[in-house]
Amino acid sequence: MSDGQHTIVLGCQWGDEGKGKLVDILAADCDVVVRFQGGANAGHTILFDGHKFVLHMLPSGVLRPHLVNVVGNGCVVDPVALASELDELRARGMAPPPGRLLVSGGAHLVTPDLLSEDRDTGAKIGTTGRGIGPTYARKAQRVGIRCEDISEPGFADRIPAVEGKERFLAACQRLVPYVGDCSRYLHEAMAEGKRLLFEGAQGAMLDLDLGSYPFVTSSTTTIGGAFSGAGVYVPFARRLGIAKAYSTRVGNGPFPTELTGETGDLLRTRGHELGSTTGRPRRCGWLDLHLLRKAVVANGINEIALTKLDCLSGLSEILVATGRDRSGQPVYHPLPGWDEELANCPSFDRLPKTTIDYIGFVELHMGVKVRIASVGPDRSKTLFRGAQ
Ligand code: IMP
To answer: How far apart are CA 17 and CA 262, in angstroms?
Structure first.
């Protein structure tokens, strides 16, 4: 096994930090991209060559033709969503053939009854309605249905007779050529010297254990989930934490630095903060270093990418929460804003001094270097400090 060349990309807030774009860029230097948790609740938006791709179920590496993409056993797979993403990619000549897409036989299937159960019961949490909670619940109850069951006799009889069953069964048949043993594949790939890139979905604050329970998703979104969710130990040399330069949250639950007034509206407009899976407006607020620190600790983050810095331009003052007071309220530190538009900034060290100071403040409080600054949605608007 060759150590030192594997990377994991993890969201450090409530998801939507811009992981998809970073994974897509870093994938250029990798051989295999792996998803290990979550399902079609994710929404990874990637923009390149003027095309916008929103991936929910497929790993973000599908847009790079040299890569193998793996959906690990820790994921919950909605075959209908997956088939429709494959169709969309096929229409653009980019669908991965079997061999370039491997779905773990151990991943649990989101059946149509579980989709409607989530839609009926998920309102309190504000779930995405993609069947995530009910599917993981069945898995934990040891009554779930897995991808490897599709080819077993009597499979269709195990699916409750509800609306959407026929479509579900047809989509399952399309999945069959992709189903395999991911754990073994990944182990062998490492032995052959292949470079792995693990792609987290959602973020640390939505982790089933670490997040603000019960307002969380139903999987382990932090690094521990990578090992159990892919069935293999990977010595990740690069543990890249993605954090937006401010905070957003979709769905219900505590959001200590939330901005409900004008500044929140401004960030929402500037950052086009609408959920890529549900289209819901995202709640917006100041950067919360108190929570970010928890994500850094839980994940062993050794490098940070700060995204959407361009959306903060024009604010005279930017607040950053550094801790909590005795009553648990955020303690803010004010930092000067900047007027310059950042989107056309050619390199990291040409960012305005106030932006560099903002980044430096984050580094000081996290004890981790910010190696990447994202200043626009396109692949090209990504500034690396040092080597990529
Ligand atoms: P579920 O994952 O659909 O069960 O939803 C649980 C919580 O996680 C809700 O607050 C959702 O809005 C949130 N959530 C799930 N996936 C994402 C995501 O990809 N980005 C942001 N929030 C998400």
So the answer is: 22
pLDDT in tens, 114-156: 999 999 999 999 999 999 999 999 999 999 999 999 999 999 9
Q: What is the CA(69)–ligand 1 centre distance, in A?
A: 23
With cut-offs at 50, 70 and 90, classify the pLDDT of residue 4. Answer: low
Q: Are 159 and 168 in contact (CB under 8 A)?
A: yes
Quick: pLDDT tens for 92-110. Answer: 888 999 999 999 999 999 9
How far is ligand 1, taken at its centre, from the CA of residue 207, in Å?
10
Q: What is the pTM of this model?
A: 0.96
Alpha-carbon separation of residue 227 from 87, 187, 231, 290, 361 (angstroms): 30, 12, 6, 26, 32
d(CA 91, CA 304): 35
- Greatest pairwise CA separation for the chain in angstroms: 65
Confidence of residue 1 (pLDDT cuts 50, 70, 90): very low
Contact 204, 295 (CB under 8 A): yes
Residue having the nearest C-alpha atom to atom 9 of ligand 1:
127
- Looking at the predicted structure, is the pLDDT value of residue 332 above 60? yes
Confidence of residue 41 (pLDDT cuts 50, 70, 90): very high
H or E segment at 175?
A: helix 165-175
Phi, psi dihedrals of residue 131, rounded to the nearest 5°: 80, 15
In the structure encoding, which two tokens stand for residue 378, read together?
């396109």
Query: To test ligand 1's pocket by mutation, which of 114, 121, 128, 277 has the most ligand atoms within 8 angstroms of CB?
Result: 128
The tokens of 232 are what? 């293999």
Q: Of all protein residues, whose CA lies closest to atom 8 belonging to ligand 1? A: 217
Residue nearest to ligand 1 atom 15, measured at CA = 41
Tokens of 195: 């470079």
Q: 205 by DSSP, 3-state: which?
A: helix
C-beta of 54 in contact with ligand 1 (< 6 A): no
Q: Can you tell me whether residue 279 is helix, strand or coil?
A: coil
Reported as a single tens digit per residue, the pLDDT across 235-244 is: 999 999 999 9
CA-122 nearest atom, ligand 1: 4
